[in-house]
TrEMBL record:
The keyword Iron applies. This is Catalase. SMART domains: Catalase. Belongs to the catalase family. Residues 1-23 are annotated as: Disordered. Residues 1-18 have a biased composition (Polar residues). It catalyses: 2 H2O2 = O2 + 2 H2O. Decomposes hydrogen peroxide into water and oxygen; serves to protect cells from the toxic effects of hydrogen peroxide. Residues 3-396 form the Catalase core domain. It comes from Saccharopolyspora cebuensis.
Amino acid sequence: MLTNRQGHPVYDNQNQRTVGKRGPATLENYQFLEKISHFDRERIPERVVHARGFTSFGYFESYGAWGDRPIGEFTRARLFAERGKRTDVAVRFSTVIGGRDSAETARDPRGFAVKFYTEDGNWDLVGNNLAVFFIRDAIKFPDVIHALKPDPITFRQDPNRIFDFMSQTPESMHMLVNLFSPRGIPADYRHMQGFGVNTYKWVNQAGDTVLVKYHWIPTAGVKSMTEADAAQIQATDLGHASKDLYEAIERGDFPEWELRVQMMEDHEHPELNWDPLDDTKVWPENEYPAQPVGRMVLNRNVDNNFAENEQISFGTGVLVDGLDFSDDKMLVGRTFSYSDTQRYRVGPNYLQLPVNQAKQATVHTNQRDGQMAYDQDQGGRNPHVNYEPSINGGLVEGEYPTHDEQGPEIRGRITRARIERPDDYEQAGQRYLLMEQWERDDLVRNLVENLSQCARPIQERMVWHFLLCEDDLGLRVGEGLGIAPADVAGLEPLQQQDLSEADRRRLGNLG
Ligand code: HEM
C-alpha cells in the first residue's frame, strides 16, 4: 500500500484536499505538501565535472603477483596479496565536460573510477581513458575546465576559448594529440582502457616504496569512433554508452578488464628527460613494462541510479595500507578537491550512504552529527566517550601495521616553481608517429576543423606548438589552416617557457 514517509496510508493520490470540489486548497494539506516539497528537492548539484556517468558493480580478482614476482615484494596491500582473492568493486564511467543529460558521443576524456570495497577499507582508483592529462599542476584545473566548459554568456562550447587556453599551455600538447585522435571518442564504455594517469606509490612490509602507474586493459579490445560515427549515433541516442553497458550486463555478457601496473624506483630519475611525477607523460612500456596484477569483472547493474550512480563519491585520497600518494602536484590537489566537492554536492555525511560505505571493513569513528547523520556509529565500549584518548573505554588507536617511515628523504625550500624537466613536445610527437595513417588523418582533420573556428593568433601558436611536437603534424595542420612554417618561425616562446637550442634550430630551419 502507498504511504507517505511518516508511514501514513495514502487513500487518495489523485486529488488534493480542498474546500468544496473546486477549491481552494487548504494549508494543512500535509500529504500534498510533503509530496510536492520533496519533489522540489529531488536534484542535488550535479558533479562540476564528470556529471554524466553510469555505474556498475562486480569484483576484482588478484593474480597475487606483479608479472612473475610475488606482489608482496612491492606492496603489502591485502587485496593484492593472494592469487584468486576477490574484492567487490563499483565502477563509474563518465564523460567530463557535458551536464548530466549531455551526449555520450562527445569528444571528451572518459572517466574510469573504481571503488574497491576491501577488508582494510575502501580504495578508489579514479582514472581516465587517456593516459595523460592537460596540465601538471592542480592550481590550473579550474582554468582548463572553464576553457573547456561552455562560454559563460553564449553557453556554447567554443574552440576559440579552448585553444586560447591550450595555445598558452604547452604541456597540454600530449593530451590534445590523444584527444583529437580517434581515441577521443571511445565507441562505448566496454571497449576502452583506463589509466590512473597520476603517479602513485606502493609500500611493502619493510616500508620500501616504488612509484607506480595503473592501466586497465579491456579484454574485449579497444574501439573508437570518428566524428561521423558519433554524429550518426548522437542523432538518435544521447546515452548509447550507458545503454550498451547496462544491456551487456543484463544479458550476462560481463565486461572484463585486466589491471596492469608499471613500476619505477622511488627517486627523481635524473637519467630521464621528463619527470616521473609529471602526468603529461607516459612511461615507455619497453623500459617500464605494464605487468598484470589482476582482473575485474562487472556483473551487476545499479538498482537505483540516483543512490548508486549520482551519489557515489570517489576520491584520490581514498587509499588502503600498502598503497600511497606520490608528490605529483596534480594528485595533491585532486585529493583535496574530491571530498571537498562531495561534502557540498552530496552532504557532509556522504560516507554514510550505502554505496560509499566501507562495507568490508569495520568503521568506528568519533565523527558525530551533521546534516542527515543517520548512522549510530557509537563506537567504543562506552558511548559516552566520543573523544580520544580516554581512560573510560572510548575508541583506541590501532596498532600501526609496520613502519611509520617510508620512501626517500626529501629536502627543499618552499617555492612556487615549474618542474625542471617539462619536455612538453617529445612524447606528443612520438604519439603522433605511433599512430596508423588513418588515425593521423583523423587527428589532423579534427584539429583543423576545430582550429578553423579560432582567431588567427591562436591558430599560429597552435601550429608553432605542433611543429615543435613533430614536423609532419605541424606542417599538415598548418596546411589545413593556410599557415606556413615561415609564418610562425618568428614567434617568441611563451612566458616561462624555455625552448631548447635544438627546438629553436628546428623551427628556424622549417621557417
Ligand atoms: C571527478 C576535480 C583531475 C578523473 C572530479 C570532480 C572534481 C574533480 C571536483 C567531481 C567529483 C564529484 O562531484 O564527486 C579534479 C581536479 C583535478 C582533476 C581538481 C586536477 C587537479 C583529474 C584527472 C583524472 C580525473 C587527472 C584522471 C586520472 C576524474 C573522474 C571523475 C572526476 C573519473 C568522476 C568520478 C565519478 O565518476 O564520480 N574531479 N579532477 N580527474 N575526476 Fe577529477
